Amino acid sequence: MLILYYMCSKLSIIKVSFIISFILLFSLKLSAQSYNFTNYSLKDGLPQSQVMVIYQAKDRTLWLGTFGGVSNFDGREFTSYSKADGLSSNSVNSIVEDNEGRMLFGTERGINMLKKGKISTLYLGQVVTHLLKDKKGVVWGLTEHQLFKVVKGKLVFYPFKNKKISTIKADRHGDLFALMSGEGIYKLNGDKWQLNQALPHEMQALAIREILFDKQADNKIYLLAYQKGIYLLQNGVSKLFFQNPDIDTYYSLEQDSKGNMWVGSERGAYLISKDGTIIKFNGENGLSDNQVDKIFSDAENNIWISCFSDGIYKYEGDAFIRYNTFKGQNVAYPISGIAADKNDRLWIGTYNRGLFKYDGNQLENINLPDFMGKKIYFVYADKAKNVWISVYNNGVWKYNGKQFIQVLKPDRYENSSIVEDLEGGIWINGPIASTYLKDGKTQKITGFDGYSSCIFPLSKDSILLGTSKGLTLIRNKKADPSFKIKQLDNVYVLSIIKHGDNLVFATLGDGIVTWNVKTKAIKRYVVANGLNSNDIYSLAIDYRNQLWVGTGRGINKLTFNKAENGYTVFRDHPLIVECNQNAILPYKNSILVGTITGLVRCKVLTSLEAKKNPFIHIQEVGIYHKNDRSKDLSLDLNGRGDKFYKLNYSQNHISISFKGVYLTNPESVLYRYKLVGADNDFSKPVPNTEIEYSAIRPGSYTFQVYAIANGQQSNIEQFSFTIVPPFYDTIWFKVMAFLVMIFLIWLIFYLIFKTRERKKFQLEKLKLKEQEKIRKQTAEDFHDDIGNKLTRINVLSEILDKKVDGAEKEQKELIKMIRENASLLYTGTKDILWALDPHSDNLFEILVHIKNFGIDLFQNTGVEFKMEGVLSEYQKLHLSMEFNRNLTLIFKEMLNNVLKHANASQVLIMVIETDHNTINILTTDDGDGFDLGSVERGRGLNNIQTRCKRIKSTFEISSIKGKGTTTTISTRIPVTK
Amino acid sequence: MNQNLRIVLIEDDDIIRMGYQSLLTDVPEFSVINAYGSYDLAKKQLEADQPDVILLDIQMPGTSGLQALPFIKKALPNAHIIILTVFDSPELVFEALTMGAGGYLTKNSSAAKIIDAVREVSTGGGAMSTNVARIVMHSFQKNLDSPLTKRETEILERIANGLTKSQIANDLFIDQETVRSHVKNIYIKLDVNSKSDAIKTAKERRFI
């Protein structure tokens, strides 16, 4: 009350209403629920327990400045740097990351810089309390209240003429502001600092430690006055925003993503919601009673609180609250069952403290002798909202809203599970038998394997029994052994529920098994799929049709993904609790889960805040050469993921290490990767942070990886490379080699063919030669033989001639004829021989032969025979045997004719070359000539004509009686000039 | 009878041999001393026969006429040998002439021709038939280094053209005796120069 009056007198009415509501609410939330904070301290790797500055780098990791050095936290691990690593001092006050990815640490002795794992000293001097980066990337800082900027590694002080700057801060647009004590707030415009807002008069004397610019509205500046509280400066008007008499000193100030303000005091932190609600966090409800030096809101909208000597705390939000005390009552008992009755009151059974009832206000322990301090096995509400309770050694009771009725008497075996079926009958199970209650009648059903542990009504006449040995179907009150789900054989089934088309089975050690009643498809979910544990104790479905499971190591939420026909497992809650079998209840807009130490309330609908994605970046790419170690590479991508690195074909062993940062729930980070060019799809989610590929075939590839956490996907990072095939592996080379091969094969065949051809040809030639030789030989022998025989005839006829008297003219004539014919035969055979001689295959030889024939014929006949125009060049004119024979015979016939009939004195044969460059042969005699029409000569001339035709020549004859005859044979023999 | 020309025949065909023997015997100046069926049969007697002219066949059993030539020439250096054979291929002709044959006749020659040739040869002339003349000319035509003189070549040409000695004599305005001696010279040249390059080359050129 006193407080209220004092406040009113000081401030305006508007503010009063604010303050009043603030106080009212202030008194409320003293219920002893535990808020969820995750603590990281020395035992987790923090180098020192006092964190003075928290900074989040571009890669989403947190940098923490302590008195023992600086540490980088990626959600799982701390990587620390101290003097031993090169820091000038272990006391790190300020941190900033510059545009080149280097970390700058402001310490007690200046500024150190961390680049690629190595620490260097940028500035050695006095303490640097603040470091900040402006929009252009220039680093500004404060050392001993003097403002400077870092230019090329050197400190350049801004001339503020001995004025003290107490703090610098950036607003939501990235503009830098500096608070000059006692004066006002300066803003950085380009290179100059200009007064932006003067401090209102009443504030000038205040010792202002921190300023904070509202993240949702401009012109709202919060000022933390050391011992006075938080003031809000809006449009030049200041007013007190938050002040608590309990607080001596105000240390830190932050605004979260929802717009709520967080204030750190010397004893815990305060959350001031937008609606005015104030929650105090201290040692009693999850935080710490120590001084809160710093509060930080990260990129994932987590709140980090640094507590003196406790390290840092991450606020997990109020998605779930753990109750180990409630309304002053201690409820940290193992909860065995939860149910809501007709009046919507909660009934909670415990394993060692009996039964509790909560009516919305009070939590009451049922201190009836039947229940007090007893072991409760289950608490169940049937359709009529009667509450059924199984008590150790006291049977089963029913509460109908007014009184407790014992329904089942205590038995040898305790009853541990219960369900109402579709017909309104109640099934109560003990380990080896089921009791069926309906309309006042009880029935016992036995005959199943193992110990029963849960029941589920499947249909009108069927009940599914989950046992330690799997599943048993009870049809028409009898165990039906024909029904079996193979995957659940010998699996300890702890709970069964129907969700959509699936029957979901919670098992001990085998995770969750789902069975689609329509398709009979079975799916299994285990730790690898995201569950906290493979021991599933309880199943429930909330009003949003999400499936909640209580496991041996925490609570998971599953949503059914229609597209994949499976569940997505969420690991939202880092709470590690062991849940109890069947102790779960959807209640109002939460799920209540019974654990071995109290209740956990999970909010079904988490605040509609855009969930932040995890962030991944590729840390290092190692390229290993097949043979040459010196050619190994280590690439630091630094965001250049779109460039194609060219690699030698021996550099085909690659390892890529990456890190996904998800501070909200680092345990749930899994990775999916794909090597484009080798894989068709992204891999299943795996926790590996390094992937190795060895013996990659030449080609172009892109390695892509992204992180998933809590169903959120991170950015996709990639690394592209091309492995240049060795020249002998390229398409060109292969094609060329192939062509060359083809060519060589062809060449070989061709050569083989050619040699064979040549051999054949040579053989032919040889054969021909042989043949010719033989022919000649034969002809010679023939001629020889004939010749001798003819000579005989000649000689004998000569002798005969001598013996015949000259008067016997007739005989003499006959003898003469014999001799002539023999002579003709003789020359005839010689002619054959001559024709076969290969040397006589040219025009010259033929003409000479004709000439000789003529000479011989007309020798001693008194006829002058001449042949002219036989040029030796004609040896080059080769003619066939046929031509040879025919031409010879033509002239033999003709000359014989002339001799017999012409009565000539001169015969002349002329060989002429025509204008057309062919050969003509003229034969003239000066004999009697003859009548061309006469038949007598006809026959001979016909022969000549035929023969001429055969040698493709024309035959012309002209004869004048008394003047002589001329014949012309025009051949087609071409003469080359 | 001492002035009769002593003729020996070496011819394997019985009828031809007997026929020629009969025909030659008819010629008053000629006496056929002996007629043998082969050289092998003849060689023992040949020297004793002391022939002036030998008519020698080529195709004979045992030693051929060409093979026998040098032997005969050696044994009877003064004898004139006329080759009388069926065949007159240039190869044979050249072979015979260069080996010392004084003449070469083909068997289809008439008895008159043969008798004429014998007479010619006995008087030291050369019996050259038209064809032989042609052959010799052909060979020398190809060869620029002909060992024959211009006159000899002219005569050779005319013989090749079938002119008789008298015709040649008329043609060249020389007497027959001169013609005959030219022909003899040609033969001698052929013989003497049998080893000469000119003839060798001529031979080679024809005898591929």
From TrEMBL, chain B:
Molecular function as annotated in GO: DNA binding
Phosphoprotein listed as a keyword: yes
Coiled coil: none
Domain HTH luxR-type: 141-206
Pfam families associated with the record: GerE, Response_reg
The UniProt record lists the keyword DNA-binding: yes
Domain of life: Bacteria
Residues found modified as 4-aspartylphosphate: 57
Keywords: DNA-binding, Phosphoprotein
GO biological process: phosphorelay signal transduction system; regulation of DNA-templated transcription
InterPro entries attached to this UniProt entry: CheY-like_superfamily, EvgA-like, NreC/VraR/RcsB-like_REC, Sig_transdc_resp-reg_C-effctor, Sig_transdc_resp-reg_receiver, Tscrpt_reg_LuxR_C
Domain (Response regulatory): residue spans on this chain: 6-122
Descriptive protein name: LuxR family transcriptional regulator
Organism classification: Bacteria, Pseudomonadati, Bacteroidota, Sphingobacteriia, Sphingobacteriales
